[in-house]
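In the previous chapter we treated chains in isolation. Here, by contrast, the input contains two separate entities that must be folded as one system, with a combined length of 198 residues.
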Amino acid sequence: MVARRIEKEQKIETPRAAWLIGLAAWAIPGAGHFIQRRWLRGALAGGAVWIMFLTGLWLGGHLYAVSGGQQGLGALLQLLPMIANVGSGLLYVFCWIANIGFAEHAQILTYEYGNTFLLVAGLLNYLVTLDAFDIAAGRKR
Amino acid sequence: MKHVFWMSVFAALTAVVFGIAAKGTDRQRLIYGLKVFGEFLGIALLLGWILYFIPFR
């Protein structure tokens, strides 16, 4: 019976729109919910990510990026926090292009708070993206 | 106080997203979000007091 249920669930295809909504949700925090007319959810979740990201920058945190100069373990240590930062979508891309937030300001008292805010903003946006994707795929209300 | 303030902001924003991503009715998710917020603050304060009594120097 369980095998039959799993087989049935596997046959349900994910709509193509769900992938696009997932992409939009990642790119602009909250957009995935707005597209699906989930205004309150989008405003709360997207707003939380936006506030967290901007506060992180304001507190003096810095964004991670793997540069060509790093190799081996050094590059790996940069890669993991970079993956977290990239979760912020176009906010990260914009900062990368404009070179905002990539300089370290360790002398600022709230520097570590800023770093944490920036990292968690990206990770939370991954969660928001998955939520928007699940709604679009019909797995969640 | 600055640290407690930023910790509270962090806990509140994280709890909002956790509450939204959770499954269940609106009421259940609201309760879950409040629980997450309370747990963040409670555990941080508890750890803060434990660390206060540990002599690091």
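Chain A has a mean pLDDT of 89. Residues 16 and 24 of chain A are 13 Å apart (CA to CA). Compare these points with the single-chain example from earlier in the chapter.
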